[in-house]
Write a structure and sequence with these properties.
heterodimer; A: mainly alpha; two-stranded antiparallel sheet; 15 helices; 2% strand; B: alpha/beta; 5-stranded mixed beta sheet
């Protein structure tokens, strides 16, 4: 029996499912099955799952233009990216792809410099996310307790995240410039003659801190929103039971804001994988490749060397990592919600 | 039933969608840039050849350099002469290379006139440029004043030609060259004391050696209070590091590739094996490491602008840098900076030349193509080069021999001078002599080779590698890049 015949036999049921979905409200349509009516009751054993027939419903057709546009905007580049990763790309006289099989992939997997960049990326990822999380939560907790001056402090604290990352990089570069930089002069006053951006370790620390300075306010803001949802009566009950501040924070506040923290971590971690602007403006990957994380290497391969096939492989690697991170956090979130 | 058969399933839709997307992607790729060039419209009989394309608008993309700043500030004479309007886009070199490559790939020629850096634009995309001999030989255009011969011959070859072909893809537009820049006041005040302590005349000149330069810098570090450091270098992990190191490399007898002079002057697709692991190159790297170790600590984070700022701010007493910084110094430290050719190494001397030409995109067509040539002709003409020298907005230095011969230009080579860049004339004229001019390899894959070298040098300067390891690793990486070849 062909798939079409099967589909035909189940036609009436499929039609009813479509009607149910259309009438049942969009709220029931899951994100993973756009426009397809959910089956509330599992089919009896031996029968086909109606979702398997997958007829496009009225809702599906209504969503089709949007989905098609999304496809144009994201799927065509993805398909091109995959094609380019198996090709050598010629630019002159129009783009041309010359199929080279797995050459670019083999090069990427055997490229020691690229793996060093992955190591740096993970180090940077852990450092920025860890610091931003700790500082963001601390700032949010302090702000949450403030009864006076919060309205004044909050905008000041949030200010860095409204600055474009490249401007943050420029600010950092100028402040650390050994000829006229304010921070550099302060450090020279303390006896530190070394150029901060000229030393591998201090340059890595500096670009990490620039990112932390810019994005800690975002974590603080999201956490602050979460803190306002913590039930005060539970905290009062804990106080009456003799719990100290740390215990209340660790056992009540933190579990309460965990879902919203996961959202914040998800947003920042996906950004951290793509970190580029500040490094590009300050160190451009140096010194001694100490800040050449993968996005910088990708940019270099694509737009300095025009080795677009190889760059496509790095791009796909980054995409896979981002998807993995997103799935991990979305999974944790779903788990939490189910719980 | 019919109705159901005509309704596609999700799987079918995805399958169709996937195939459609792949086809669209392929179609998009192959369709991209498949355009032809329209012929240049013929001139009207008896018309002014300069006004032949009046009413046309063209685009010029340039690095944000001094000559372009001067031209952008003084476009009215060109508009009045030709009736052509020109939009100038200025970017840093890295962004320019990207834009040009993508423009050539798009095939639409958004940019008619292109600042063709010989190493990052001309060598990789020579086929994307028009042969300017075609325009110069066409009598319907105004003549190229002085012909190609008026341009300094080494500069014409280095900036305008590529490979074995005699085609001229660009006309020399600027000519920055690395020379020794030093604080006159410090050398005047401490010259005798230095000479007594060091045992040689410290006056900067092409007769000094790099080892003497090192000792002078060290002496200033230890004995001069007015200025914190004796020397500063552009040793950031950047193209600038390669430029700075190359002066030392060549003067110690090191080469990037065999037949380096030809590869620097004319360029090639196949440079052969890299020679940076030679004993001479390793000796040069070791000296460079020692030199930077006594330089201003900021050197590790400076490119050429960083060195220029440090010199102007009185942080360093001397540095090798591009001669076009003279205008900045004369504004910040009037009369206090002197210029000389770079020191010698154990084998000879070399002054890195970083000049660039301007060319016309091969895809530029119709009236825009002709208008682009009129602009290239005008922008590199003796009158415009003289005007650039006097400009307060920018400057640059001439690339034509006839301009250097002008009495007012000659008069400007000594202070007081209204053309500060001409104060370097004595130094650069020696630096451009055969055997003294330093030309990096003009190969299409230079950008990647350059990155491999300056990354390894940066590792050496950070103390992560010895000079030998750095040079051997750079050689191995460059050999790998060259072996992969270049597709444009």
């Amino acid at each position: 029996m062909s798939a079409d015949q099967t589909a035909g036999q189940h036609g009436p049921h499929g039609g009813r499912a479509a009607t149910e979905s259309a009438g049942g409200g969009a709220g029931q349509v899951g994100p993973g099955s756009p426009g397809v009516g959910p089956t509330p009751v599992a089919p009896p054993a031996g029968q086909h799952d109606r979702r398997g027939s997958g007829r496009i419903t009225f809702t599906g057709w209504m969503m089709a233009p949007g989905v098609a546009l999304l496809g144009l905007l994201s799927l065509i580049p993805l398909v091109m990216l995959i094609m380019m990763s198996f090709s050598r790309v010629r630019l002159l006289g129009g783009l041309q792809l010359e199929f080279v099989g797995l050459e670019n992939w083999a090069r990427a997997f055997g490229d020691v410099e690229l793996w060093k960049s992955w190591g740096l990326t993970l180090g940077y990822f852990a450092a920025t996310l860890g610091l931003e999380l700790m500082l963001g939560i601390a700032i949010a907790v302090v702000l949450n307790r403030l009864t006076r001056g919060r309205g004044l402090l909050l905008p000041l604290i949030l200010l860095p995240m409204f600055v474009a990352p490249s401007i943050v990089g420029l600010l950092g570069r100028y402040l650390l410039d050994p000829t006229f930089g304010l921070y550099a002069q302060a450090l020279q006053g303390l006896g530190v003659e070394q150029d901060v951006l000229g030393n591998p370790v201090s340059a890595f620390v500096a670009v990490t801190l620039m990112d932390v300075w810019e994005w800690t306010p975002l974590i603080a803001l999201i956490t602050l929103a979460g803190l306002s949802g913590v039930n005060p009566s539970v905290l009062e009950a804990a106080s009456i039971d003799g719990a100290d501040e740390w215990k209340k924070f660790w056992n009540i506040v933190l579990p309460s804001i965990k879902p919203i923290l996961l959202v914040a971590i998800l947003i920042r971690s996906m950004d951290a994988v793509r970190y580029f602007d500040i490094i590009s403006v300050t160190t451009n990957g140096g010194p001694a490749d100490a800040t050449k994380i993968v996005p910088v290497r990708l940019y270099e391969a694509a737009f300095r060397f025009f080795d677009l096939g190889y760059a496509a492989v790095i791009g796909i690697m980054m995409l896979v990592l981002t998807i993995m991170i997103a799935r991990l956090f979305v999974g944790l979130l779903s788990e939490k919600e189910t719980h | 039933m019919d109705h159901q058969l005509s309704t596609p399933t999700r799987r079918q839709l995805l399958r169709f969608g996937g195939a459609g997307l792949a086809a669209a992607a392929l179609g998009g790729l192959t369709a991209c840039g498949q355009t032809g060039t329209a012929p240049v419209p013929p001139p009207s009989p008896g018309g002014d050849p300069w006004r032949r394309f009046a009413g046309t608008t063209i685009n010029f993309i340039s690095e944000n350099t001094a000559p372009t700043a001067a031209i952008a500030a003084n476009l009215q004479p060109f508009r009045d002469l030709t009736g052509i309007d020109i939009n100038i886009v200025t970017l840093d070199l890295q962004a320019l290379v990207q834009r040009v490559a993508l423009d050539l790939a798009g095939g639409q020629s958004q940019y008619d006139v292109v600042y063709a850096d010989p190493y990052q634009v001309l060598a990789p995309y020579a086929a994307g440029f028009a042969d300017l001999r075609e325009f110069a030989a066409d009598e319907s255009y105004p003549p190229l004043e002085g012909g190609f011969e008026d341009f300094i011959p080494t500069q014409l070859q280095a900036t305008g030609m590529f490979g074995a072909s005699d085609a001229i893809y660009a006309l020399p537009y600027d000519c920055p060259t690395m020379i020794w820049q030093y604080r006159l006041d410090i050398f005047e005040k401490y010259g005798d004391q230095m000479e007594a302590d060091l045992g040689f005349d410290p006056t900067p000149s092409g007769d000094r050696t790099w080892e003497e330069y090192f000792r002078i810098a060290e002496w200033i570090n230890e004995n001069v209070d007015e200025i914190p450091y004796g020397t500063g270098h552009q040793a950031k992990q950047h193209d600038a590091l390669m430029c700075d190191f190359s002066n030392v490399l060549w003067s110690y007898g090191g080469e990037y590739f065999a037949d380096g002079e030809r590869i620097g002057l004319r360029g090639t697709d196949e440079p052969g094996k890299c020679l940076l692991d030679s004993a001479e190159a390793i000796e040069a790297a070791e000296f460079y490491r020692r030199l930077v170790s006594i330089a201003h600590p900021g050197s590790l984070g400076w490119d050429w602008d960083g060195v220029g700022n440090a010199m102007a701010a009185g942080e360093i007493a001397m540095a090798p840098n591009w001669h076009e910084f003279a205008a900045t110094y004369e504004a910040a430290l009037p009369g206090l900076v002197g210029y000389a050719p770079l020191p010698r190494g154990s084998v000879g001397t070399a002054n890195h030349f970083g000049g660039t030409g301007i060319g016309i995109s091969a895809m530029s067509s119709g009236a825009r193509r002709g208008a682009a040539w009129l602009f290239v002709n005008w922008a590199t003409s003796p009158a415009t080069q003289l005007s650039n020298l006097k400009s307060s907005a920018g400057g640059g230095t001439p690339t034509r021999q006839s301009v250097y011969a002008m009495p007012e230009v000659q008069a400007a080579t000594t202070r007081p001078s209204e053309m500060p860049n001409m104060l370097t004339e004595d130094a650069v004229s020696i630096a451009w002599e055969e055997g003294r001019i330093g030309l990096r390899p003009k190969i299409p894959m230079w950008n990647e080779c350059d990155t491999a070298l300056f990354t390894e040098l940066s590792r050496m300067l950070a103390g992560q590698k010895t000079a030998r390891d750095a040079m051997e690793d750079a050689t191995s990486r460059i050999d790998g890049i060259v072996a992969r070849g270049w597709v444009a």
